Amino acid sequence: MQLALNKEKGYTKAVFVLFYFLVFFGIGGLFPLLSVYLSDVVGLSGAEVGTIMSISPVVMIFIQPLWGMIADYTQKPRLVLTLTLMGTGMVGYFFSFIEQYAAFLVIAALLAFFQSSIIPISDSIALNYVQKANGNYGAIRLWGAIGFAVSVLVVGRLAETFGLKIIFYVFAVVLFLAALFAWQLPKESQTLKVNLREDVSRLVKMPKFMLFLLATFLIFGPIYANNFYFSLYITGLGGTLTGVGLAFLFAAGSEAPFMKFASSWIQKLGILHILLLSSFIALVRWTLYFFEPSLTIVYATTILQGFSTGLFIPAALQYVRDLAPTNVRATAVSLYAAMGNGLGSWFCTFLGGLMLEKYTVSTVYGFFSVLTLVGCALTFFIKNLEKGDLAESNMSG
Questions:
Q1: What is the pLDDT averaged over residues 319-325?
Q2: Would you call 240 exposed, middle or buried from its count of C-beta atoms within 10 A (0-12, 13-18, 19+)?
Q3: Over 50: is that where the pLDDT of 11 sits?
Q4: CB of 331 within 8 A of CB of 69?
Q5: Would you kindly state where each structural domain of the chain is located, as residue ranges?
Q6: Which of 16, 201, 315, 320 is placed for a possible disulfide with 140 were both Cys, Cβ 3.0 to 4.6 Å?
């Protein structure tokens, strides 16, 4: 009996590993090269490319919570995830046939519409599973970081050999494969009674939850916006395009080991201590970049992304799920993702662009430092709220 149970756990973990690897392999192969395709192959202007690339976070602000609500209302997150993966792959494939700017705007919005469901719903399923099976979310999620890092090299090499259009074909194939594995992910073991309006209303009336959404906006917004500005920062210091690729490889690859050990660190130090530590390390990184160190130091400090992102993601997701009522956890995770991936990313990218026009890219990182500092202070305030609630609970007990 125990042997059969261990085999089932091993199979489920393998499905999660392959799922995350494929999803992030697809993302890592498409989005870093999409702006190059739009500029060099299609011939769009910089402003047009920037507008197309900024559509995704704007759409995610509104659509990510909607997908979470659909998953909670239907109680079929696995089905929603499978269908949206197929939709994302299909829209990505059609990207290769578009030539007009207006059509790119429409197709980019459609891509973001379907894609915005993938990470929050899959993370919600994974967290639900590891909590029941006493597993390690970070040990599963790290394969996403590995998939992203591997795809930067593999798809980049394929694009050099076969042309940039291949990024869309690889993206479509990989996401359809991911959909097959999504259908093999664990189902919910029970049906929950959902009163969506009442439960969501309860969620937004939770002070700690809303404060943490704001902290996520301040901390994760710069982390996502860094993907747009880091290449400019490196080339501005005299780095090459090859150096840019290696920097992204080191940064994304460094997340994996930290995700693996995040669970044990959370148990030893506590979720909010880990959130404070990871956000403080992000603050150190952005502040360092503001002072324009040498390229050697910049390359060496890419590992700080492992400390910050690799620890923040597992800890933040666990904190959100622990705070949220059971029957609106997918909605809570989607709101959290919308604040970081969506609103935070758009805000930091947009204001960063305005600063870049007037000043330098190092000024942008100074702006990121200020936001992250406020996010750290807010996280510290939430930690004190938790401490006060615990003391009050012990007194009443």
A1: 85
A2: exposed
A3: yes
A4: yes
A5: 1-187, 194-397
A6: 16
Identical topology for domains 1-187 and 194-397: yes
pTM here? 0.75
**Which amino acid makes up residue 182?**
A
DSSP letters of 259-323?
Answer: HHHHHHHHHHH-HHHHHHHHHHHHHHHHHHHHT---HHHHHHGGGHHHHHHHHHHHHHHHHHHHH
pLDDT reading at 114 higher than 90: yes
Contact 320, 332 (CB under 8 A): yes
Query: pLDDT tens-digit profile of 23-45?
Result: 999 998 887 778 778 877 888 77
Alpha helices in the chain (DSSP H): 2-36, 46-74, 77-94, 101-115, 118-133, 137-162, 166-182, 196-204, 207-236, 241-269, 271-290, 295-300, 304-323, 329-337, 345-358, 361-396
Fold of 1-187: Growth Hormone; Chain: A; (1.20.1250)
Query: What's CA 324's distance to the chain center, in Å?
Result: 19
Query: Class of the 194-397 domain?
Result: mainly alpha
